[in-house]
Write a structure and sequence with these properties.
186 residues; alpha/beta; Double Stranded RNA Binding Domain; SHC Adaptor Protein; 4-stranded mixed sheet; 8 strands; 31% helix
Length: 186
């Protein structure tokens, strides 16, 4: 697995990078040799956020956590990622060629993150389908419309590109924009 490190407002030391490599080695059986992991550490005031994104065979796996210590945040992120894999084990086995590796991984590693204890056999239930008119508008207009509706996201047709795009409100209060593109652009 290729690992890329990004430090925002912080210099990442070699011992932290070694810890990341050791933690991610637990996942080697699940991911292919072509898997790419991005580890981003952000320092804001006295909190450190660790964000882990793994891209493999067209799938994205992402976890993020904030703690006062980056090592604690890393531990939580690995637990979250392991919990996500455990929760979606059956679905991943159907999609992934390494079903035996996922089974073995789930049996051998016990993660402590409790938010992912749902039944893995449950289906994705669509509670409501809503048809919305998609009008051409600028990104700024889309953000304004989202805020006027008091929504967390808003889909629109970008007036400049004619692509269907989506604006959303991030946890930090800023805004994000999702645009269609190739997988390499993630």
């Amino acid at each position: 697995m290729k690992i890329t490190y990004i430090g925002k407002n912080v210099n990442l030391k070699d011992n932290f990078k070694e810890r990341v490599e050791k933690k991610l080695s637990k996942f080697e059986r699940i991911f292919s040799d072509k898997a790419e992991a991005n580890v981003t550490v952000t320092l804001q005031k006295n909190n450190q956020t660790v964000e882990l994104t793994i891209r493999d065979n067209g799938m994205l796996y992402r976890a993020e956590n904030t703690c006062s210590e980056m090592n604690d945040a890393l531990d939580k992120v690995v637990d979250i990622l392991g919990g996500l894999i455990r929760k979606n084990k059956t679905r991943l086995e159907k999609r992934n060629k390494s079903a035996a590796a996922i089974d073995s991984f789930v049996e051998n590693y016990h993660f402590t993150y409790d938010d992912y204890e749902e039944d893995e056999e449950s289906t994705f239930e669509i509670a409501r389908t809503k048809t919305i008119p998609v009008k051409p508008m600028s990104v700024e207009e889309a953000v304004l419309q989202m805020n006027l509706l008091n929504h967390q996201f808003y889909m629109f047709q970008d007036a400049d590109t004619d692509d269907i795009s989506l604006v959303y409100k991030r946890k930090d209060g800023r805004y994000g924009l999702l645009v269609p593109g190739d997988e390499e652009e993630y």
